[in-house]
Specification:
- 78% of the residues lie in helices and 0% in strands.
- The protein is built from eleven helices and no strands.
- Helix 5 crosses helix 7.
């Protein structure tokens, strides 16, 4: 039988090496006029990237939770609708979904909105909505929201179903309503199972948010594309772009792992 690993062998050497490389890169960027200029340009897209990621993730989590609850409801029709949504959306690549929402879904939504509000528009209460009134930023956010809601719904479903049925039956015996059982019994226990894969989806969404650059949204990737196209400094630009994404994703991963360990310790206590 192999001897158990010593505490020293568990030291995160990969993280130490990554931190050293990140510091060296930061120093080089600070002392190089070219890299400093590239970084200043590309970094202008960080705010848009964070905005797109956070808004899309919050909306996707809300929709995903609703789809998960539909999939576990007592109604056969609701379960079939939820399964249809999950399987269809998960089968479409995010990039294809982004194009469809931006150039097919948005015009269809505008046409439907104008048809429904035609009487109000005639009365002067509403103006006609134009396709250009729906910004590409929000089209991108809705595409990421819809795409990730299907994956997140499966995370919620697995976490909720991991709670022992005996506890739910005990809560029923105590007279708790379905909403009270979910809020007080099911969700607090399910969150420990849900958090790791949900955190992974959040980190993945940070990376997939780069796809919004195909619509011209001024995120990190788009700012890099514009600078590289104008300066022909492709190596420097995309190296800085990768560096910024690595700082964001690795930092988020470490923060989520720390949160998981804290929740685990609280549960054990």
């Amino acid at each position: 039988m192999a001897a158990p690993a010593s505490p020293k062998s568990d030291f995160p050497w990969w993280l130490a090496v990554a931190i050293v490389l990140a510091i060296v890169a930061a120093l080089y960027i600070a002392t190089s006029n070219l890299y400093a200029q590239v970084f200043a340009t590309v970094a202008k897209g960080i705010g848009v990237t964070i905005f797109v990621t956070v808004i899309a993730f919050v909306l996707a989590s809300a929709i995903g939770l609703g789809i998960a609850l539909m999939g576990m409801s007592g109604s056969r029709w609701l379960r079939q609708i939820a399964r249809f949504y999950v399987e269809i959306i998960r089968g479409v690549p995010i990039l294809v979904l982004l194009f469809w929402i931006a150039f097919a879904g948005a015009p269809a939504f505008v046409a439907a909105w104008n048809a429904l509000t035609a009487p109000l528009q005639s009365a002067g209460l509403f103006g006609e909505l134009l396709v250009r009134d729906v910004s590409l930023l929000w089209r991108a956010i809705m595409a990421l929201t819809i795409g990730y809601s299907a994956f997140i719904s499966e995370v919620f479903r697995a976490g909720i179903q991991s709670v022992e049925k005996g506890q739910i039956e005990a809560a029923k015996a105590l007279g708790l309503t379905r909403a009270q059982r979910f809020r007080l019994i099911v969700f607090p226990q399910a969150i420990r199972t849900i958090l790791p894969p949900l955190g992974n989806d959040f980190v993945a969404l940070v990376k997939d948010s780069s796809l919004v650059s195909v619509l011209g949204v001024a995120d990190i990737t788009q700012m890099g594309k514009v600078y590289a196209a104008g300066s022909f400094r492709f190596f420097e630009t995309y190296s800085i772009t990768a560096y910024i994404y690595l700082i964001l994703t690795v930092g988020l991963s470490l923060a989520l792992r720390a949160l998981e360990r804290r929740l685990r310790r609280q549960h054990e206590e």
